[in-house]
Amino acid sequence: MRKVISFMHISLDGFVAGPNKEMNWIKVDEEIFDHVGKRISEGDTALYGRVTYEMMENYWPTAGDKPTASKHDIEHSKWYKKVHKVVLSKTMKDTGLTNTTIISDNLADRINEIKQQPGKEILVFGSPAATHSLIQQNLIDGYWLFVNPIILGQGIPLFVDIKDKIKLQLLTTRQFAGGVTELNYIVDRQ
Question: Where is the Bacterial bifunctional deaminase-reductase C-terminal domain (predicted)?
Fold first, then answer.
């Protein structure tokens, strides 16, 4: 069965965005882009909340076509165009969208159907509200976190309204030159 993995940049104190949704504190560089690019290039499904999807859709389809496009922009744009996108939204309609599925209700059933289909990891990119919904319905199978060396003090937390403990098993860690630490966990369902 396919796994749903939450891919998120996070502050040391557990926030995924500042109080005004700002993300200018996130440290990314070529080392991180190359590392992330290798893993996501193996994926075939990206899951987004509506806000993150609209942000991605406004940038990535043409990002690699610009004369000033970076290596990362070219590679990620190619990947974005071919990957199947799943969007959690109660307001979007599934009309005329290429390679995109909208889930507006029956979240657990629809995600479990996708998990049963052949394919690789289903990566949840950012999308805090969507991630919160997935966590509350026990649909996240792993966390791929990039802990940034900053304490925000306030903002949008990754974990909210957790009813039961979620036991995790650490798979890998990696320290990047810029101070970011990657933590790769799988949910321990035993």
Answer: 2-180
Q: Mean pLDDT for the chain? A: 93
Q: What is the DSSP letter of 157?
A: E
Q: Which residues contact 12 (CB under 8 A, 6 or more apart)?
A: 147, 148, 149, 150, 151
Q: Where are the domains of the chain?
A: 44-148+185-190
Q: Tell me: the pLDDT tens digits for 8-33?
A: 999 999 999 999 999 999 999 999 99
Separation CA 9–CA 150 (nearest Å): 11
- Fold of the domain built from segment(s) 44-148+185-190: Dihydrofolate Reductase, subunit A (3.40.430)
| pLDDT reading at 67 higher than 80 | yes
Q: For the chain, where are the E strands, in sequence order?
A: 4-11, 15-17, 45-49, 84-88, 100-103, 122-125, 142-148, 156-157, 168-175, 181-187
How many CB atoms lie under 10 A from the CB of residue 69?
A: 15
> What is the pTM (predicted TM-score) of this model?
0.91
- Angstrom distance (rounded) from CA 134 to CA 111: 9
Enumerate long-range contacts of 20-29, CB under 8 Å, 24 or more apart: 21/156, 25/148, 25/150, 25/152, 26/146, 26/148, 27/148, 27/149, 27/178, 27/179, 27/180, 29/176, 29/177, 29/178
